[in-house]
Design goal:
Strand content: 25-35%
Shape: globular
Low-confidence stretches: none
CATH topology: Nitrilase/N-carbamoyl-D-aminoacid amidohydrolase
Structural class: alpha/beta
Strand order of the largest sheet: 5-4-3-2-1-12
Distance between the termini: 28 Å
Number of helices: 5
Helix content: 25-40%
């Protein structure tokens, strides 16, 4: 196989405990094989989240998030993607940063907020496409998967892969898997999904059980590799030949 190797160190998150989450992320990346090109962590991986004003206590600035991820990327010579709760003055955003060892960074803000998230978080207003070892790559967060229009826009961009971060409830985990497969297939591209596992950890809030189920989906919609809810590492090489063959096949059907 020829292509980049991606890793998803599936993990639980300590809500509003930034130092604890950062220590976990640093440790998990350091244990990965040296040939990994891109590492993906889930939605709110640095900060966790709670859908009320306590969220401000766990939010971080963009500079804080990207400086931390740059240090992890540089120490391990790989690109790193992770979600976090971003604070800009009084505004909170559900952000995901893609950071390279040289410090160059791209940030996407989730556009489609879920449930009570909208009571404290401001939605983003634009799609983000980044250059990665997997080629041009679109970034999406969790509930964004439900909106076919966003997938269509990324198809128009001709992206080679989608990197998706999520914190999907375990009760609806089949929807996560179905939507990841659909978004890979409808654009004929690789999809790598990093899902949060474990349980919510803030007293006084609903103790959500998260799905985990991180996965890699082929450009033909077939799940190539997946985890359940364990805190394990998912490793996969995104074979360029598979992408080329599927696109040629789909083109020949038209």
């Amino acid at each position: 196989m020829t292509g980049p190797t991606v890793a998803v160190p599936q993990l639980s998150i300590a809500d509003l405990e930034v130092e604890q989450n950062e220590a976990t992320i640093r440790k998990r990346v350091a244990k990965l094989p040296a040939d990994v090109d891109v590492v993906l962590f889930p939605e709110y991986a640095l900060t966790g989240f709670v859908p009320d004003n306590r969220a401000y206590s766990g939010a971080v600035t963009r500079d804080h998030a990207t400086d931390f991820l740059e240090s992890v990327a540089a120490d391990n010579d790989c690109d790193v993607l992770a979600g976090y709760l971003e604070r800009d003055g009084d505004t909170l955003s559900n952000a995901v940063a893609y950071v390279r060892p040289d410090g160059t960074t791209d940030v996407y803000r989730k556009q489609h907020l879920w449930g009570d998230e909208a009571s404290v978080v401001t939605p983003g207003d634009e799609l983000v496409v980044v250059d990665t070892p997997a080629g041009t790559t679109g970034l999406l967060t969790c509930y964004d998967l439900n909106f076919v229009a966003e997938s269509a826009k990324l198809t128009d961009e001709g992206v080679d892969a989608l990197f998706v971060v999520g914190a999907w409830p375990a009760a609806h985990s089949e929807n996560w898997r179905l939507l990841c497969r659909a978004r890979a297939l409808d654009g004929v591209r690789w999809l790598v999904g990093a899902g949060r596992t474990g349980n919510g950890s803030i007293p006084g809030t609903a103790q959500t059980k998260f799905a985990g189920r991180s996965l890699v989906v082929r450009p033909d919609g077939v799940v190539a590799a997946a985890l359940n809810r364990d805190e394990r590492d998912l490793l996969w090489t995104l074979d360029q030949d598979v992408l080329d063959e599927q696109r040629q096949f789909v083109g020949s059907v038209e």
